[in-house]
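Handout, section B. The chain below has 160 residues.
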Amino acid sequence: MAKHISSADKITAFLTIPFFLLLGRLINRDFWYDEIYTLANYVFVPLDKTVLVFRDFNNHFLFSLFCKSWLAIVAPGKDLFWLMDRPYIIRAPLLIFPAVTIYYLYRIGTEFFNRRVAVLSIVLLITTIPYYYYAIQLRGYSMSIMLITIILYNYLRKYR
């Protein structure tokens, strides 16, 4: 039996498509200073330095490990200067973080409130300018928001 797609579901899909299209425009932009800092000091370094060095609060080590792993798969042996001409290689997989965040935010809204709350939550998230810019920046912000959203969803399910 076919599942009915509500108008709220259609609106949510309609609203998130432009968000990802706009993010797609940012994928190939030049790196920002803090992105280069992260790559140079935490990604293109030995693994122990990625995980153990905390000179400052700039090391989002889970994110750095993700980037290090991704680059080992798609660009083994390449360096930062090679990557600076191809920022899309490291930014494209970052689209998974906002996609998963939106998915879990929608689940929280529909399972614990109603579809209107889910749609409004997503609209508020994707129209927030800092989230839009940080969604594919080479920093741990979008991954952190994704992980917090997943934790919140699972917490609410367990202690409902």
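Note. The mean pLDDT is 89. Compare this with the example in section A.
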